[in-house]
Design goal:
- The complex is a heterodimer of chains A (360) and B (83).
- Chain A has 360 residues and is α/β, with parallel strands linked by helices.
- Chain A is built from 10 helices and 21 strands.
- The longest helix of chain A has 19 residues, at 323-341.
- In chain B, 28% of the residues lie in helices and 30% in strands.
- Chain B has 2 helices and 5 strands; from the N terminus they run E-E-H-E-H-E-E.
- Chain B has helices at residues 23-34, 50-60, and strands at residues 2-3, 12-15, 40-45, 64-70, 75-80.
- In chain B, strands 1-4-5-3-2 form a 5-stranded mixed beta sheet, covered by helices on one side.
- In chain B, 46% of the residues are buried.
- The chains are: A alpha/beta (360), B alpha/beta (83).
- At the A-B interface, loops of A face strand 2, helix 1 and helix 2 of B.
Amino acid sequence: MPTPREILVLGGGVGGTVVANLLVRELGRRQAHVTVIDRTGRHVYQPGWLYVPFGGPPPKRWERPERALLSRKVDLVVGEAQRIDRAGHVVQMADGTRYPYDDLVIATGAHLAPETIPGYAEAAHHFYSPEAAVRLRDALEGFQGGKVLIGVADIPYKCPPAPLEFTFLLDEYLRKRGIRERTEITYLSPINRVFTIESVSTFVTPLLEERGIQHEEFFNTESIDPVAKTVTSMEGTELGFDLLVLGLVERQQVVLAGSEDRCVGCQRLPLAIVDGADVDGESEVRPGRLHLAVREEQARHNPGLLLGQGCTAGHVLPLAESGEEHRGARQADGRRVIRVYAGFTDRVHPARAVLSNDAR
Amino acid sequence: MTLTGTLPTIDKEIDARGSFCPGPLLELIRGVKSVPVGGTVAVLSGDPGSNKDIPLWIQKARHEYLGAFAEDGYTRFVVRKAH
């Protein structure tokens, strides 16, 4: 009997969890032994943080033990992966432990980089971490009216529709509190329409206007003055605010630092980007292709390696991806990995692994 | 309008072929951020939407548009960072 393939999955977020569960479900123990390595052992459903500022369920509500979400056939290691040795097919942990692999799935996601915009840390709010979402909730509770600006600090940022969703939720929240008429809301977009997808933009713009929400196009945040409470764009526009909510720029996870490597096939596509290296654009490793094309090409050239969505889209391109795209991409991830090993039946819904826990 | 002829000197070139609107524009914005004032940035785009949104942004941001140069199946948009 052939030895099962040793598959390591770095990261127990939605992507890593879904892929791991799909792999064992479809391949079985004879074909694959799957291990998830996760830093905390806590699975966090990040989209839930959007509702925290408006008095929604607290951040803890959006967490589960990763173990409870994984199939019993998947092993879980809680610890910090430090370096990927692609040549040796080994992942080295911070505590020195080494995990060999035949195939590696990198689903470490992205980390936030508030330091890229001067003044951000002092003056801007966001909802991309539990702490920040709670801080914004507190700020909103004390808010009695004034100027609110909502936009993005830089590109890429997590979940493209999130700032728009936040804008509509805020409008509703302020109306319920009876202070909407004392508040001026302006939505800032980095491009020449309110959303990247033109048809969505055409649909959403009148909805903003019906609610008296102003919108400013071509606003790419350059700096924030926390004392004067103004934000300036690359395009030269300066706006004042009482409350500033800006989607945060994301960068490659640190686990990949030091593991930078080029695609073995074309020698061009990055397999990993050194943390922060592309902040100033000096380390040009982005291939400038749509992420799905990139991922397909990566898969073709690097059959032992798969990068999760947060590890590629946001870094390979300045376009972040939405939850809906995530879902599609994870389906594609899981299916593609499985296709490599076995005949794949198309019946498994990848979100089921996560959703089933809530349904129990 | 698409130009042919001599290309200006390019300090930074970004290949955004295969990326759909507004990907090439966002690539260009990041590129402009990363070069010093006076530097030139080119972005390669195969998306027809770029013909509209790239010149619009350059005008709004008050940089210098050096033109769109037709290549085989794509266009090279060139801008000089003015401030």
